[in-house]
């Protein structure tokens, strides 16, 4: 019993034991599965980054492909004979610009015959090719140069937004079926004019320097005035948030005792950094406009609101760069008899300055692109149709800001304004890019590692 | 004396005081600055401080108080009948405009001082006279308003005169006081530094003041709103249909629903992509890939939200329309317009990717290397290490990051204003246009709404809700993140 049962038991135990010979160079099923999972997991990561980068590319592509058009503009070259009688009649009339339009139409019709282009469109219908601001261009010229009356002057008149869009490929022939502003015949004419060199696309300085235009003249809308508005706002933000932010950080980092009050300040700062920007807009509306009666739509108020919004960012980065200055600097200053205040203002602060400036520039860049609070304090209700005259008017008189102006254009019905909105975004992003590059250069060049 | 002149005079006094103080201190030490307690400049600064600080404080208080006092006096002159026609504030703004117009006319020389003081409504057409110099008045000036305006002018000019005298007097007194104290043993540095220290404290307190300002401006207007609109209807009402004519229904439920729906879609896009990107960048990527991919992803975070809004409205929306809209690629018509919950959600998700990824990246990097080494040493593959060791260890932090992202999504404005639509709706279809809390704050407060109407005041109640929700999310998130960090540091 003993021997046999033992061997039997050993046999039953080792029955599944004879494992098939396996090379360790050859992965078994489980290892293959695990390796496949490993590879898949890695692929997910790569895919995630690829998707993220794809979105970035798509965004930039959308911006560039839609927005670059705003930087060129179609002009029509017309020799306008400034006949004294016609101009005097126009100036006497109530609707001066429509008389000037008639002058332009006549001049344009003769221009077409001179170029050898024949068209069935009646002379009156030709004015649809021009922007409705073209007449004002001629009139302004006449008023500025009364001596030119009687001679023939060559004008580069702005084409209407439809013609402009046709040359840029935005407006297609089939779109014009329901459009009462332009017919296909006009487009044929535009093609011929382009061949004859009367119609040409040029860089659009007016977009960069100009002001906003009314709903019917998208071809004349520019971002210049709102750039000035943004500039004044940024000046307010810079001159308030930098000193206040640095002062607050110095107190918190160097002087503040460990107590409830300091904790309260710190909690407040970290919370303010996460409060939605629109809430700052409500604060600005209630405190600065309702309570303090500061002027609505003024860059000063916008700047104040954005200052409160950027302060946490600046305080956080300033504290980080103050903390990065080694204590030995402070000790050395104190050791040769400087007071605490002197050691900070003469030694720590200058050494922390590159970091502080970097943080400030990044904070300013954030503030420059912020829109939501500006909507509430009325910077979007106002359309910037002229530049502020003088410095104090720049702060106190109503103006727009770049993002608010872009929003205003995005809301309008005419797709020609969308092109302006994208173009405005390119300008805005160029500013942001410049600021960020300056910040990076500052950090690279001046930041010291201790 | 106008404000600018007062400021220039103060500045001049301060500069004079600086040199006087410095000079006196040096003279008292016989020209040897080593005998002084502080560096000579501090004696000058001491006088600057004692000249400017009290006088500027008085000036600031005066500027805040004077209009209120004058308003009270003048508005008590206006009779009941006049106020019954329009609200008191409208009448008062007329009074102020007439008064300022008259002052402007005098300063421009179109009216003599005596003429302005003796104007009578039955003799002069004041509206036309003021119109000439560009002051537009809404209606003809009644004798009562003119009288009030004259009183306003009288009070203001007296007030301004008193202001100049008081401020300059205090500045002189401060200068004299500082000058008298100046001698070689005076501890000028300590005095100046104490003042600077209080300034630093004041700057730090602005953070508290901002929070207080936010809370107060929200609370006052919210209370005002609930006085004219029942709170229960606001919090539990299922319809949002404001009409400025009255009889509007202002239920917050559809707005909250859309806000949460959009935030959910945004997180559904941002969290997987952001998390996997963070895992890949911190665990797998070589340093070159990391150095290129990470900043590129972070560009997405630096792009202003208005750009995303436009991207949603003009690119993503029409693209989705081409797929799901009538006559689209799928042949279904589930979508009726470019703006929808899905449009806004996806674009917001793109915006949040770098937010989630860089926060998670930090958190994953904070997991100690020993835990990775231990897991790899036991034979786990890299992905098993990530899934079974690193992620569980980093989970609280990642949850915190997701909560922070959620609070960003809830508070985001421009994307939903442009991309989500304007109609409030309770619907499950993500391709329908809905509107959110933030979008309605914007639409209720822009335009020419009367601030006293419930339709405008509701924005403050919405803002309060938003503020409370995001604050709670942030506090919870920061608490979780902080608690987790303490485990390994």
Task: Provide an overview of this structure.
- The complex is a heterodimer of chains A (450) and B (489).
- Chain A has helices spanning 2-13, 29-67, 84-92, 96-115, 134-144, 161-168, 184-196, 205-209, 224-255, 260-272, 277-291, 299-324, 327-335, 340-369, 372-376, 391-396, 402-411, 415-446, and strands spanning 72-81, 152-158, 199-203.
- By secondary structure, chain A is mainly alpha-helical.
- Chain A has two domains: 73-202, no CATH class; 224-446, MetI-like fold, CATH 1.10.3720.10.
- A three-stranded antiparallel β-sheet of chain A has the order 2-1-3.
- In chain A, α9 packs parallel to α12, α9 (224-255) runs antiparallel to α14 (340-369) and α17 packs antiparallel against α18.
- The longest helix of chain A has 39 residues, at 29-67.
- The radius of gyration of chain A is 34 Å and the shape is flat.
- Chain B folds into two domains: 3-186, no CATH class; 240-488, MetI-like (MetI-like fold, Orthogonal Bundle), CATH 1.10.3720.10.
- The longest helix of chain B has 41 residues, at 188-228.
- In chain B, α2 packs antiparallel against α7, α15 (382-411) packs antiparallel against α18 and α17 runs antiparallel to α18.
- Chain B is an all-alpha fold.
- Chains A and B meet through α2, α9, α10, α11 and α12 of A and α8, α10, α11, α12 and α13 of B.
